[in-house]
Amino acid sequence: MNILISGGSGFLGSAFSEALIKRYRSENKEVQVTWLTRDSSQPHPVDIKMMTYDELTNFDKSFDVILNLAGAGIADKRWSDARKEQLLASRVQPTEALLAFIACINTKPKLLVSGSAIGWYGDQGDEPLIESSDFNTDFSHKLCDDWEQLALKATDYGVPVAIVRTGVVIHPEGGMVSKLLTPFKMGVGGQLADGTQIMSWISREDWVRAAIFIIEQHLTGQQQAHLNNTGNTLNTANDTPAAVYNLTAPNPVTNHTFTKTIGAWLHRPTFFTLPKFLLKLMFGEMSTLLIDGQKVLPQALLNAGFTFKQPTLKQALEQKV
Q1: Based on CB atoms within 10 Å of each CB, which residue in 25, 97, 193, 312 is the most buried?
Q2: How far is residue 208 CA from its own chain's centroid?
Q3: In the chain, where are the structural domains located?
Q4: How far is the C-alpha of 18 from the C-alpha of 16, rounded, in Å?
Q5: In which element (H, E) is residue 114 found?
């Protein structure tokens, strides 16, 4: 497999790259991973090739698969108008570059896997949400939808598209958990607001396994066989297939349960509560990510036969690093 990854050096892209190379080499299969970057001099594993966006415009060879993960972290800063524009641009610009590349090359990729998030569904409380569910409009939805609709334009060039809507990614030494370690270890960790909001999450290992599963399902010709049974097909202006997958574990939890599970894992108390008004004061509009809930289920993955290694939050926190 020859795969191009935007956002390859990130929390998900780096883990995906390592796992893909390890798996394919253990099976004596050829694999080449290339990271698309703005700075080819950045540190990277010796097994990874680097390519700049400028080099991509003149590259005349194809890739079997493109994995599009580039995008600034939605929860990294308050949502000022300038920050909202930055969040959108950090997703749109890399995707536009990939579309321009796809349009120019003679041999098209067999698949474009493009990132998104469960924010696409908007705030829907404890309503179970699967890939065919509707959405509520808010900033998170619009950001995700604009990104998805742009990626789907790859079907205009005959390239199938898989959209992956990712939940909160859990890993003992990275992502959201790493940001929480200090306050929890200090004994000041606690639930947010009333703690009833649902958090849909996935372990990083299962995210990587799911992404590889989706790619291999397509490359081995099995994707179309189960698309009609999963309810996750997307409408396009042509006959090129497109589908969406919720990359979440099958057991979402309330914020209260999440807090207690983190506390138990660290053997620390969780007596504190950050009230809703204080969260809104601290984070502004971005507080919706902490206050509102989404019960997003991975129906398409389960229907396709995917098995989770860490289906519970406790297992995800205790996974081997």
Answers
A1: 193
A2: 10
A3: 2-317
A4: 6
A5: strand 111-117
CA–CA dist 217, 301 (Å, integer): 11
Distance spanning both ends of the chain, measured CA to CA: 26
Beta bridge partner(s), residue 242: 161
CA distances from residue 226 to 113, 236, 240 in whole angstroms, order as listed: 17, 18, 15
CA dihedral 234, 240, 241, 247 (to 10 degrees): -70
Q: How many CB atoms lie within 10 A of CB 236?
A: 16
Question: How big is the chain by its Cα radius of gyration, in Å?
Answer: 19
- What CATH superfamily classification does 2-317 receive? NAD(P)-binding Rossmann-like Domain (3.40.50.720)
* C-alpha closest to that of 141 among 88, 68, 83, 67: 88
pLDDT in tens, the chain (321 residues): 999 999 999 999 999 999 999 999 999 999 999 999 988 777 788 899 999 999 999 898 889 999 999 999 998 889 999 999 999 999 999 999 999 999 999 999 999 999 999 999 999 989 999 999 999 999 999 999 999 999 999 999 999 999 999 999 999 887 778 777 888 888 878 888 899 999 999 999 999 999 999 999 988 875 554 444 556 888 787 889 899 999 999 999 999 999 999 999 988 988 888 888 888 888 888 888 888 889 999 999 999 999 999 999 999 998 765
Question: How far is it, in rounded angstroms, from Cα 163 to Cα 150?
Answer: 11
C-alpha span between 65 and 247 (Å, rounded): 19
| Residue partners of 299: CB distance under 8 A and separation at least 6 | 130, 131, 230, 231, 232, 246
Q: Which residue has the tokens 């969260």?
A: 279
Please tell me the distance from the alpha carbon of residue 14 to that of residue 3, in angstroms, as a whole number.
13
CA distance 133 to 90: 27
CA 309 to chain centre: 18
Residue 66: count other Cβ atoms within 10 Å of its Cβ.
26
Distance CA 274, CA 289 (A): 14
